[in-house]
Amino acid sequence: MRRTVLKRAAAVLAAAAFAPFIAACATVPAAGPSAGAGVVLERDFRGRLYADGRFRNAITGSERPFKVVLDGRWDGRNLTLREAFAFADGEKDVKTWVFTRTGPGTYTGTREDVVGTARVVTEAGAVRLSYDVVLGGSQVHFEDVIERGPGGAILNRAIVSKFGVPVGSVDLTFARRPL
Fold first, then answer.
1. Which residue, among 158, 169, 155, has the nearest Cα to 17 in the 3D structure?
2. For the domain with range 2-174, which CATH number is right: 1.10.390.10, 3.30.70.100, 2.40.128.20, 2.60.40.10?
3. Which of 51, 83, 126, 135 could form a cystine bridge with 31, CB 3.0-4.6 A?
4. Are 65 and 56 in contact, with CB atoms under 8 Å apart?
């Protein structure tokens, strides 16, 4: 039985390492001190942004760097955020989030690879996302914290888990100009 569990964990890790977007969950990343104003989805993700990111495999320690070009459009209720990924190994992918404001500081989010609906809340100047994705036939959970870092940069820290066990993490830095 233990060998089967280890084989399944290895399959999940392999799928996560090759997934187009790994963005986070067993424990929620702590929000750090914010520099200046907090992050507001419809303000900070409107227009074009660029991001540098890295997925880290929690078991092997391997890393998979990637870049993202994001285009966000706010219509007064929904933020549509198109993400074009380019991985260091040559793989490319495009995903589109639709965040719908449901109340002050609360949103729902959908994306073509998300199971159900993402829960999105703003607290203490940070945006927190919680959602599930199927990668390589296996469902994993993500917890993201998006906040301002030093110099006003927007940072996304995420943990990805399977059955509550961390299997990876993602770090992204967003900017208005290519990084």
1. 169
2. 2.40.128.20
3. 126
4. no
